[in-house]
Amino acid sequence: RESFPVPSAICSGKREKCVIEKENNFKQPGERYRSWPPDRQERSLNRLVGGFSEPRITQELRTIWISYWIQCDKSLGQKLATRLNVKPSI
């Protein structure tokens, strides 16, 4: 029979029922992208396209990442999808 360590510290307190707000992990990167001047946005887009064009990146991974970028900024995700010839999943 396998035994597991039992912690010596006793946890005490009161449980409360509360609503936990859902995280939006895409809001901040989208706001950051939109705050950049158009030339910087274009440079960023070109770097992403270059990275996703690597032969070792599968079509499935491209599609997943484009769906993430669409959640950050719709126009960025659509531009990525167009340049990479990928149909967005969202």
Automatic annotation (TrEMBL):
GO MF, one term, reads: catalase activity
> Could you provide one GO biological process annotation from this protein's UniProt record?
response to oxidative stress
| UniProt xrefs under InterPro entries | Catalase (IPR018028), Catalase_immune_responsive (IPR010582), Catalase_sf (IPR020835)
Which SUPFAM superfamilies did the record assign?
Heme-dependent catalase-like
Q: Please report the stretch or stretches of sequence annotated as the Catalase immune-responsive domain.
A: 20-84
This protein's source sits in the domain of life called Eukaryota
In Swiss-Prot or TrEMBL terms, this protein is called Catalase
Biological source species: Ricinus communis
